[in-house]
From TrEMBL:
Pfam families, A to Z: XdhC_C, XdhC_CoxI
Annotated XdhC- CoxI domain residues: 15-69
InterPro entries: MoCofactor_Util/Proc, NAD(P)-bd_dom_sf, XdhC_CoxI, XdhC_Rossmann_dom
Organism, scientific name: Aromatoleum toluvorans
Domain XdhC Rossmann: residue ranges: 169-311
Protein's recorded name: Xanthine dehydrogenase accessory factor
Superkingdom to which the source organism belongs: Bacteria
Length: 347
């Protein structure tokens, strides 16, 4: 499953290749609460078809109506982008489903050859980060190699946006837990790669849209070179496989590196990686182990949910307190249970 921005770009390019008029809509700025963050994309086709979103639906309906009434062909013939603001007044905020006081500013641009969406899509597919500068007077676009993430900037002359590769997760081990983890990861827009060199694990393991690798984990990590939009999760319980992945992943730019295991095994793993493989304290400090948030997980599906919750939090830059991780959260929960039992409560 593709992330939403890539899907918007791919669909808009396909409509353009078919000779259909297309308008690309970008959330440029927001004030107060808003349904979609700055940088969100939506494409509107000639028949009112849409892909992507800029709100919960009301603004999309109004945009389609405006484009139909104005004639999408005439809009595309004008070449120049336009800026549209929603939610300035309380009445408009209520009408368009925005929280009270919420305001968003959108840039609508006709998709034409000089829009360079095909080049932008190719850059995302090649996991390159791009800064896109749109001239509001002419509609011409400049593309530069840029940072992976950034807040769009809109002024009277131009709109600058940043697009990066799809978020990716590399899962070491093809087991039941991996299957659930991959399904959740795909559902929230991650590209998913599963690595397991054990041939017997592949016979009954397949999942649509998930790439399977039979390489040794260290070979895969070295080949893919995890970037700042990549997470690595080791799930085999086999140090010969998990450690191989972790050694290189912990020295990469991956935004999340985690491994499943008990608290005791996690401590032994940290000691092993430091003593035998020379990993520094700073590298080991970035290891999430045991991986996941403590939610009392019992089944593979629940464990997968707890791990992906921690991955998504890291992706979104949320600093979580140690107490809700498995390592600290489980003993706190056990201590709480003992206190309740001492008080004669049923636990």
């Amino acid at each position: 499953m593709e992330d939403l921005d890539t899907l918007v770009l791919r669909t808009a390019c396909a409509w353009q290749d078919q000779g259909l008029p297309v308008v690309l809509v970008t959330v440029a700025r927001t004030w107060g609460s808003s349904p979609r963050p700055p940088g969100s994309l939506m494409a509107i086709g000639a028949d009112g078809a849409t892909v992507g979103s800029v709100s919960g639906g009301c603004i999309e309906d109004d945009l389609i109506k405006r484009i139909r009434n104005g004639g999408i062909e005439s809009i595309c013939a004008s070449l120049a982008p336009t800026v549209q603001r929603y939610g300035i007044s309380a009445d408009e905020a209520h009408r368009f489903g925005l929280p009270c006081g919420g305001t968003m500013e959108l840039v609508l641009e006709p998709v034409l050859p000089h829009t360079r969406l095909d080049e932008l899509l190719t850059a995302c597919e090649q996991r390159r980060s791009v800064e896109r500068i749109l001239d509001l007077a002419t509609g011409h676009v400049e593309l530069r190699e840029g940072r992976r993430d950034g807040v769009p900037h809109l002024d009277e002359q131009r709109l600058t946006t940043y697009l990066g590769p799809q978020f990716r997760i590399i899962v070491i081990g093809a087991g039941d837990l991996s299957r659930f983890l991959c399904e959740i990861a795909r559902g929230v827009g991650f590209e998913v790669i599963v690595c397991d060199p054990r041939v017997e694990r592949h016979a009954a393991w397949s999942l649509p849209g998930v790439e399977i690798s039979r390489e040794m984990p260290d070979d895969l990590i070295l080949r893919l070179k995890p970037d700042a939009r990549t997470a690595v999760v080791a799930l085999t319980h086999d140090p010969k496989l998990d450690d191989l992945a972790l050694i290189d992943a912990l020295q990469s730019d991956a935004f999340y590196v985690g491994a499943i295991g008990s608290r005791r095994n996690t401590a032994l793993r940290r000691e092993r990686l430091a003593t035998h493989f020379g990993l520094s304290e700073s590298a080991l400090a970035s290891l999430h182990g045991p991986a996941g948030l403590y939610i009392g997980s019992k089944t593979p599906a629940e464990i997968a949910l707890s791990i992906m919750a921690e991955v998504v939090a890291a992706k979104n830059g949320v600093a979580l307190p140690a107490q809700i991780g498995v390592e600290a959260g489980k003993p706190l929960h056990e201590q709480h249970g003992l206190r309740l039992a001492a008080q004669g409560c049923i636990v």
